[in-house]
């Protein structure tokens, strides 16, 4: 009797399980020893090597292309901008000969007084006339800026003989935009904590790849679709692992995203070839066609389709992969078919919500254009099939199809990767991905 009372009771299975989870180190990085894990690591490593080779072969020269001088005027690049602050604004007759010029004294009255309009005195903060004042007359009308004392603005400076002529260019938004960016970053870090910070790093990495590699490489005349695929792969390898860590979940998400991206690239080419959309309806693409003729406009459209699909693909694949591993963690003995079917149920809901999100996002950004179309006499079918609308509709369609494809691809990859993982490894993997 005393021997039995001296023997400590053995912990229940539930207690042993909880004890093991609590001792698992946070941030565990798991590379499985099963065949699925080894094949996955080899495949992703080969993909990373191919991406690095592609980046090296397509690396831009960063040399400025020879452009027609008229391009600078047509695009506004020849206009030098200076910063200034509005000192005062009053209503006065328009037509002063001092409009747009540096004031040697009080502004002159117009010789032939016209209707009254807002006249602003602006003190220049930069440029050769810094510290001096300029008169700006801005006739009232739709879209005219409403200037008030203390407003920080940008002025375009155009040399005209021995003097410079100034005109309103835009408001200076550096400080308020920087404050809003800080607010957004603070909210992301406060809610997402360490993952929120890594998400911000991922955004910076993606922008650096697009601005520092994709755009200059396309400008060098390299095939735009190849540049987009290589650049997209580089973004995915960097962002997914930086934001979500190196573990089974991210391996499966990366496999699904890369597969869907390649499908989106092929689908984009087929869509553009069959619908014969050109993109020439936009002012920016027209200028590219006229002034940067060595860049393929079709390739540029393809690159836009591919890059545009990456954001939604990454969101869905990470969520879908996490769903599979959570299910395997809750029921380690569930069969692959059962896990696949359950995860696909979640994925279908996610795809449905993301598809109409894409459509609503385009509709919201295109409201002014759709409003102009509605004022005309064109039929709705003619509007929808016009080049300017068709480009965005087809881009949304490609993204939606790639989105639908990435769900079963990622789910299958996650189920395949998790099949050889023990319950103990699932504990460590789940804790690592939640860190």
TrEMBL record:
Task: Specify the domain of life of the species encoding this protein.
Answer: Bacteria
Keyword field: Membrane, Transmembrane, Transmembrane helix
Q: Which residues form a coiled coil?
A: none
Q: Which residues cross the membrane?
A: 39-59, 174-192, 199-219, 225-243, 252-272, 292-313, 351-373, 393-418
Protein's recorded name:
YibE/F family protein
Ranges for the region named Disordered are 1-33
Check the record and name the InterPro entries matching this protein.
YibE_F (IPR012507)
A Pfam family recorded for this sequence? YibE_F
């Amino acid at each position: 009797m005393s021997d039995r009372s001296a023997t400590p009771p053995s912990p229940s299975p539930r207690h042993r399980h909880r004890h093991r989870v609590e001792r698992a180190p946070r941030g565990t990085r798991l590379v499985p020893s099963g065949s699925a894990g080894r094949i996955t690591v080899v495949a992703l490593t080969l993909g990373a090597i191919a991406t690095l080779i592609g980046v090296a072969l397509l690396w831009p020269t960063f040399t400025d292309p020879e452009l027609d001088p008229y391009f600078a005027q047509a695009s506004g690049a020849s206009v030098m901008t200076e910063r200034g602050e509005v000192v005062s604004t009053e209503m006065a007759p328009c037509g002063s000969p001092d409009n747009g010029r540096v004031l040697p004294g009080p502004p002159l009255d117009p010789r032939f007084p016209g209707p009254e309009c807002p006249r602003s005195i602006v003190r220049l903060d930069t440029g050769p006339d810094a510290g001096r004042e300029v008169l700006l007359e801005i006739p009232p009308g739709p879209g005219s800026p409403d200037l008030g004392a203390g407003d920080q603005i940008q002025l375009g400076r155009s040399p005209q003989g021995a003097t410079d002529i100034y005109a309103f260019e835009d408001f200076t938004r550096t400080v308020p935009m920087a404050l809003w960016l800080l607010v957004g970053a603070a909210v992301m870090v406060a809610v997402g904590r360490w993952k929120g910070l890594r998400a911000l790093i991922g955004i910076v990495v993606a922008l650096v790849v697009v601005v520092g590699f994709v755009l200059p490489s396309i400008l060098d005349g390299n095939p735009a679709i190849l540049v987009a695929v290589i650049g997209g792969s580089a973004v995915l390898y960097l962002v997914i692992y930086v934001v979500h860590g190196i573990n089974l979940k991210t391996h499966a998400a990366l496999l699904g995203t890369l597969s869907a991206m390649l499908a989106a690239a092929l689908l984009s080419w087929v869509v553009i070839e069959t619908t014969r959309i050109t993109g020439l309806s936009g002012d920016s693409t027209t200028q590219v066609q006229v002034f940067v003729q060595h860049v393929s406009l079709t390739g540029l459209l393809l690159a836009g389709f591919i890059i545009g699909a990456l954001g939604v693909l990454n969101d869905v694949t990470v969520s879908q992969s996490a769903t599979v591993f959570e299910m395997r963690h809750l029921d380690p003995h569930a069969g692959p078919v059962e896990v696949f079917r359950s995860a696909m149920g979640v994925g279908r809901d996610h795809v449905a919500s993301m598809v109409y999100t894409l459509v609503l996002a385009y509709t919201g950004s295109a409201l002014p254009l759709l409003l102009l179309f509605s004022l005309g006499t064109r039929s709705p079918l003619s509007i929808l099939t016009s080049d300017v609308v068709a480009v965005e509709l087809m881009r949304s369609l490609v993204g939606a199809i790639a989105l639908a494809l990435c769900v079963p691809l990622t789910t299958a990859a996650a189920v395949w990767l998790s099949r050889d993982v023990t319950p103990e490894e699932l504990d460590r993997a789940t804790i690592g991905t939640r860190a």
